[in-house]
Amino acid sequence: MPDPQLVMHEKEFHQIQAVVDRLVRDANAQVVFIVDKNGQLIAAAGQSDQLDTTSLASLTAGNIAATGGIAKLLRENEFSTQFHEGERANIHIQLVGKRVILVVIFDNKTSLGLVRLRVKKSTEELDRVFEVLIAKSQEPGQQTPLAEITDDDIDNLFND
User: Over the stretch 20-47, which tens digit does the pLDDT of each residue have?
Assistant: First the structure.
């Protein structure tokens, strides 16, 4: 069964943003963001204004997809955690609930151990929030916000 379309509600968005904000502080990270598997940025915190977050989100999702292909070749379900170490920046990538990607960018002022510890706690919190969103999207009669838009509405929009 395909994943249900998630609609982000304001309450859950604020909960997600609070987790991301706290993770930046607790892990002493430079940037933390959450991306869906399609590469859409959901939330960001830290020094994200210095980065092209749109490209980073898209490339991270592509990285997860490519790693998923490697996992299948090795008869694994997936690799839920990735770590990339550079000269000045390190990236910890964690799948959350097989639905979204948590990305933590940090430098040598913090340790991988601290990041992993804080990511573990944050992942548990995020799992709970996304479970609520999934449950809401599966409620009977739940429609997407775009359900009431018709083909005529779209045609009228572009016929100005």
Answer: 999 999 999 999 999 998 899 999 999 9
69 belongs to a structural domain:
yes
Is 146's pLDDT higher than 60? no
Neighbouring CB atoms inside 10 A of 96's CB total 21
118 within some domain: yes
Q: What is the mean pLDDT of the chain?
A: 86
3-state secondary structure (DSSP) of residue 160: coil
Can you give the CATH number for the domain in which 113 is found?
Answer: 3.30.450.30
Q: Which amino acid is at 38?
A: N
Question: Does some domain include residue 116?
Answer: yes
Using only C-alpha atoms, what is the Rg of the chain? 18
E-state strands within the chain: 31-36, 41-46, 81-85, 90-96, 100-106
Q: What phi and psi, each to the nearest 5 degrees, are found at residue 82?
A: -135, 150
